[in-house]
Design goal:
The chain is mainly α and 360 residues long. It has helices at 8-18, 20-26, 32-35, 39-44, 46-61, 70-78, 80-112, 119-135, 138-163, 179-194, 211-237, 239-244, 248-255, 265-293, 306-320, 324-358.
């Protein structure tokens, strides 16, 4: 699969814009049971994790040889058989995550904007729209992220400015939330941030003096955005009511007094998050095809490898959400836990293996 690679700037923009969708899905609901009104402090705990993850990714990328792709780097560090197994497992997991993104995005769109529609139809349409981007040039996806990322940031800033006057800051504190509770509340969001580690597979051939910064700034932006979302929603509704709402951010939008041109503010933000879902699903399909390419002897992904990845993603979308409860549990427990282990167990393991192989 010959694709023009992403520039470091485009990779940062894609990571930021695409990970907003799972971020909105997690906060603050996944953090409230443990942290209560102090959920915004739990979100702040992800900032050190973002720095650590970025440092690990940067250290690994500095081990690349000139012009070496991430897949070639992994095969050199791990050896062919281990890279084959690890690549196959990562590829299957990314296919499942893409299927979950399709299903969760469709469910959010139905619940927030089109309650009488079928989620499966939205998921199928999104998959069809993502296929050309996943099979095409990566820089096209990167340019789209460069355009939409600032728009998403501006939209969030507008909503924050409108919601701030009605925020009760006294609700943003829970006396029962100690270090243990804050740490437990941060775990789901830590897993979401950790999923950014898979974007290593999208690294291009360009050299960068400090590759860790390419990941750090978008991950830091996601952590700060999570803190803001927690503060706005919990401060507006209180921890108890906020925990009962499936999508409190969209409910908050309905209650805002928006300008006349933005009377359907929740529809506007839902459309913006559809863009984020689109970027994330396209990126996941491409990353899955690259990871599955490690199973091949040559280690090079083919353009046609996106088709089996898409088929597996469609199967995952059909099976992962038989009911909203199962879908919510997958998004808040299983997927973040696996992503967290992949980031903070596999990446250090790769660095250790690489250092051992360098020794005579």
């Amino acid at each position: 699969m010959e694709n023009k690679s992403l520039t470091p700037r485009q990779l940062s923009a894609l990571l930021w814009a695409s990970m907003l969708a799972p971020l909105v899905r997690q906060v603050p609901g996944a953090m409230l049971p443990a942290a209560g009104g102090s959920a915004w402090l739990s979100a702040g705990l992800t900032i050190p994790a973002a720095g650590l993850l970025s440092a690990l990714l940067g250290r690994l990328l500095r081990a690349r040889r000139p012009g070496e792709s991430p897949e070639a780097l992994l095969r050199r560090l791990l050896g062919g058989p281990v890279a084959c197994v690890l690549g196959g497992a990562a590829g299957l997991w990314l296919c499942f995550c893409a299927g979950f993104t399709l299903r969760a995005g469709a469910d959010r769109l139905v619940a927030a904007v089109y309650p009488e529609s079928l989620a499966g139809l939205f998921a199928a349409l999104m998959l069809l729209l993502c296929l050309p981007a996943a099979r095409g040039e990566l820089r096209t996806l990167g340019r789209m992220a460069e355009l939409t990322g600032p728009l998403l940031l501006a939209l969030f800033a507008l909503v924050s400015a409108l919601a701030l006057p009605q925020t009760e800051f006294g609700a943003l504190w829970s006396k029962s939330a100690g270090p243990r509770e804050l740490g437990a509340g941060a775990l789901p969001l830590l897993g979401t941030v950790s999923a950014g580690g898979f974007f290593l597979l999208l690294w291009g051939n360009e050299t960068c003096e400090r590759p860790g910064r390419v990941f750090f700034f978008p991950l830091l932006g996601l952590s700060v955005t999570a803190m803001g979302l927690c503060a706005l929603t919990v401060g507006s509704f209180g921890p108890a009511l906020c925990g009962e709402l499936r999508y409190p951010f969209f409910v908050l939008l309905r209650n805002l007094r928006l300008p006349h041109l933005l009377e359907r503010g929740e529809a506007l933000v839902a459309a913006a998050w559809v863009i984020s879902d689109y970027l994330l699903t396209s990126a996941q399909l491409h990353m899955a095809s690259r990871a599955l390419g490690l199973v091949r002897r040559s280690g090079r992904p083919r353009r046609g490898a996106v088709w089996p990845a898409a088929a597996l993603s469609a199967l995952g979308a059909a099976l992962c959400g038989p009911d909203p409860f199962t879908l919510e549990r997958l998004g808040r427990e299983l997927i973040p836990l696996v992503d967290l282990g992949a980031a903070f167990l596999l990446l250090p393991g790769l660095l250790i293996i690489g250092s051992i192989r360098k020794k005579p």
